[in-house]
Amino acid sequence: MIAILIFFFAHWFLSLFFHTFFLHRYASHQMYDTSKGWERVFYFMTWFFQGSSYLVPRAYGVMHRMHHEYSDTEQDPHSPHFFKDVWQMMMHTRQIYAGIQTKTKTPDPQFTKDPLPEWDAMDRFGDHRATRIVWMGIYVAFYVVFATQWWMYLLLPIHFLMGPVQGAVVNWCGHKYGYSNFKNGDHSRNSEPWGIFLLGELFQNNHHMHKDSANFAQKWYEFDPTYPVMKMMHWMRIIRLRPRVAVINEEKKAA
After folding, report:
1. Which of 18, 72, 75, 206 could form a disulfide with 46 if both were Cys (CB 3.0 to 4.6 A apart)?
2. What three-state secondary structure class fits 101?
3. Cβ atoms of residues 181 and 189 within 8 Å
4. What tens digit of pLDDT does each residue of 157-173 get?
5. Contact between residue 13 and residue 53 where contact means Cβ atoms under 8 Å apart
6. What is the DSSP string of 223-235?
7. Per-residue DSSP letters for 123-165?
8. How does the average pLDDT of the chain come out, rounded?
9. Mean pLDDT of all residues in 134-149
10. Nearest to residue 79, comparing CAs of 186, 200, 201, 227?
11. Rg of the chain's alpha carbons, rounded to an integer?
């Protein structure tokens, strides 16, 4: 049982870290700069830890920019206020994502004018159905070896769909439940302490107000676990937080 729990939570948090650090804060918002070499490392790690649920950074970035521009309107790719349940929202999101990824849907130029990370070879491999099936087989094999109770196998669908599941939790709960620090003109909310367990992603109200701030926490009692890691990486010169982001955070610290 311990092995299964370690495996599950390691997969959850490592997948989530690269989701928020690379897909969200870099691909979508360009909150930091990094070398091409490190970008490729982060790109690979995103695929490695998302596994069967790998989300192509370019498609994710475009869709997330749409989400900010159209937040909680009918054009929002994943506002929970236009669907009766989270499954319908996920299917609608998947349809838009697939259109962007296969380039059958041409996004408005405003969503592609800022840089988007692209690595065609990695995306062709990581997004291939066979690669996803191999990952699913690896997850199943681990459970066959280490699972001691039947109910543990119920965790497998979460492993299979880790990235979309995390996105669904953030977009559904982050725009329906919790409190607001700012009037953003949408339904974005903050959820504490769940914001911590989602590595800062559930501070949606804060993020929609300061979408270029690398620190999703705003109040003294809020904590974004991803931000200190980014600060350390900045200090180590692995990434360079953009000056506008650093200024914003210093202003918040002073306030």
Report:
1. 18
2. helix
3. no
4. 999 999 999 999 999 99
5. no
6. --THHHHHHHHHH
7. HHHHTSHHHHHHHHHHHHHHHHHH--SGGGGGGHHHHHTHHHH
8. 92
9. 97
10. 186
11. 18
Residue 194 makes CB contacts below 8 A (sequence gap 6+) with 173, 202
d(C-alpha 81, C-alpha 71), whole Å: 11
| pLDDT bucket at 240, cuts 50 / 70 / 90 | very high
33 φ, ψ to 5°? -110, 155
3-state SS of the chain: helix, strand, coil percent to 5? 65, 5, 35
Q: Residue 236 has which token pair? A: 């180590």
Q: In angstroms, rounded to a whole number, what is the distance separating the alpha carbons of residues 243 and 82?
A: 37
Question: How many whole angstroms separate alpha carbon 168 and alpha carbon 83?
Answer: 12
Measure the CA–CA gap between 157 and 167, rounded to whole angstroms. 15
* Distance (Å, whole) CA 55 – CA 98: 10
pLDDT digits (tens, 9 = 90+) for 69-109: 999 999 999 999 999 999 999 999 999 999 999 988 888 99
